[in-house]
User: What shape does this take?
Amino acid sequence: MRVGIVEDDDGVAGAIADGLAMHRIKSGRMSRGLDILTRHQEFDVVLLDLGLPDVDGIDVLRQLRRVSLVPVVVLTARDDERTIVRTLRSGADDYLVKPARMAELLARIEAIGRRMARSAAAPAPVARTFGDIVVDLGSRSLTIGGEPVQLTTKEFDLLAMLLEEPGAAVSRQQLMDRIWGDAFVAVSRSLDVHMNALRSKLGRSGLIETIRGFGYRWTA
Ligand code: CA
Assistant: This one.
């Protein structure tokens, strides 16, 4: 497990990194909030301070949640109920008031690790069938009416992400972030190109619905 520490105070960040290292947990430190938006894929858990020099931690959390489900533990001096509720509603998984005891922080990180291990152990469905369309996620193949259809890597990735939860909207940012590894640069055109190609190979309109200003949805 690797923990991302978003904390502007050198003393606090250093103490946490040392405490984690003593338990053989690797960490990486960022002193600005926006850094986690481009580095979140490096980490399994994020410890997020709210009082940061560049952006408020709650804004960082909201932006992070548009592209990532990485577990976030907020660690802050603010202990008023309103802030705690806002933070949890903005997508934090846990909340600790500073100064946090190292043993408690570790126990909470371990609890998140156990939850992640449980969800990773749940078997994912390998083949999904929608009428005559069969998508095999194990062999990464698509057949329509029994005929194999060749998809590129990116086209299949797009299809697989839309099928994670058929019927649910997936944002353009989530797709770009997961498939291209960056939601914040100009891969937007690339996404359009691959989505158009995927749609034409599926050969029927309406299967992938565009949600204007947001993203896409698998409708079958
Ligand atoms: Ca701070």
About this structure: The domain at 127-218 is CATH 1.10.10.10 (Arc Repressor Mutant, subunit A). The first strand starts at residue 2 and ends at 6. The radius of gyration is 20 Å. The chain has two domains: 2-121, 127-218.
